[in-house]
UniProtKB/TrEMBL annotation:
PANTHER family in the cross-refs: PHAGE INTEGRASE-RELATED, TYROSINE RECOMBINASE XERC
Protein name per Swiss-Prot or TrEMBL: Site-specific tyrosine recombinase XerS
Gene Ontology annotations for the cellular component aspect, listed alphabetically: cytoplasm
Gene that produces this protein: xerS
GO biological process: cell division; chromosome segregation; DNA integration; DNA recombination
Record Gene3D superfamilies: 1.10.150.130, Intergrase catalytic core (1.10.443.10)
Domain Tyr recombinase, residue spans: 167-367
Organism field: Brevibacillus borstelensis AK1
Subcellular location: Cytoplasm
Amino acid sequence: MSVIKKRDSIQLLQLIPEFPWYVEKFVEHKKSKKSSPSTLVGYLRDFSFFFRWLMAEGLTTAKEMKDIPLETLNDLKKETVESYMLYLQESHLFERAGLLQKPTRSAKREYSDRTIHRKISSLKSLFTYLSALAEDENGESYLSRNVMAKIELDFVEATPLARAHAIRAKILIDDEIHQFVDFVQNGYQAHCDTTKKLQYYRQNRDRDTALIALILSGGFRVSEIVNLDLSDVVLEKNQLKMVRKGKKEDAPFFSDWGKAYLQRYLAVRHTYKPDEKEQALFLAVSPAKPHGHRIEVRTVQKLVKKYAQAFGIPDLSVHKLRHSFATQFLRLNPDAHQLQAQLGHSKIETTMQYAHVLEDALSKAVNRTT
């Protein structure tokens, strides 16, 4: 089991007692269907937001989530759920006050249609289970009516071409890939306006550069990179041993270009002073944990965002680095099946979205046709 899955499994066990018994039954059902701990934790986050809204609106007499009875869900009206959907659309105006235990800066940002769609879909899954799949000792469904069945989602799934158009302005193309990595290695120093920032940058730039270059040289997911141990790196073959989505073992490749940055980081990894038993490839330190320990996904997301904003592409995220690799791969190697294998995609349709990113290629193809 990967480090992230272990962490989410522990978090799942910690969260479950906060929820009603029927949510625990739902989680057990999903576990039997091989849902990952990360997916289940996501369900609980969505349920928590909804349950806290019910309590804040006085739609249940329960003072804690775990005490919300089935009757509350059974008696919900369609207009009540529609009011919740409206709240999701406008909650950023109130910084989601009262529903979040630890509001962050993101609480001020508007939920996207995709996020709202996911939150309602999570509830649909719960209500479907309670009304159609689960049964009590008498063989009766837990809910006699499913109000969520009356809720229509107007979310429009974008075509591959539309998704590609949205991706284009948020990725690195051609020389930008090398320019960005060089900026992380050398250029960001000019943006360090305090001694503390400069010290932190110099301490971590070889790690940060290697991490970003590795993603860009192989199209890896951030979770895959964070989970890597030293023993997972096969330098002589430019390969990484990893467990991908769906618990699939894989050994994708990375380029010689990325390898050079990785070797540079490995030469200074010891400066993080990890314990002898620490096998994580990429390390981090903090005042609370001064010895090198496995870097977290959130830390990687933040550092990529920091460099991207200074570089001048603020929408560039760690996942867009994966998109950047995939787009560049197809630009230079027009073999989608090879890219599918490298990225670990189950379906070729997922891979083909990158074939549409470069509109100039598509435009030329259209012109050649007539």
